[in-house]
Amino acid sequence: QVQLVESGGGLVQAGGSLRLSCAASGSIFNLNVMGWYRQAPGKQRELVATIISGGRTTCADSVKGRFTISRDNTKSAVYLQMNSLKPEDTAVYYCYGQRSDPPYNYDYWGQGTQVTVSS
């Protein structure tokens, strides 16, 4: 099992910044993919950004140029720096991790942290 614990959410005005952190613990060997998803009220959970252990990243078009994902493998942690926040970024942000145990992959989720952007 892998435990993911997020921190750093909160209330911020439009145009402001927040930094989310997620620490992984437990069976973190081969925790190759880490990232962030978000879910706004009445909407489906959506991908924000992911990063693999080698450093390659992906991110949603809606956050490109504003959000940056990074990872510290020595701390088994992933971060999301969010700049130029917009009211539409308001959501619960979930940390995500995927552990590889070929031929299987196992997905893990944090409990979520609320990000609210006021206009």
Structural description of this entry:
The protein has 119 residues and is mainly β. It contains no helices and eleven strands. Strands 2, 4, 5, 6, 9, 10 and 11 form a seven-stranded mixed β-sheet that branches. The protein has a four-stranded antiparallel β-sheet with strand order 1-3-8-7, with no helix packed on it.
Radius of gyration: 14 Å
Q: Helix and strand succession?
A: EEEEEEEEEEE
Stretches where pLDDT falls below 50 for ≥5 residues? none
Q: What is the CA-CA span between the terminal residues?
A: 40 Å
Helix fraction? under 10%
Describe the structure in brief.
The chain is mostly beta strands and 119 residues long.
List its traits.
mainly beta, seven-stranded mixed β-sheet, elongated, 119 residues, 11 strands, four-stranded antiparallel β-sheet
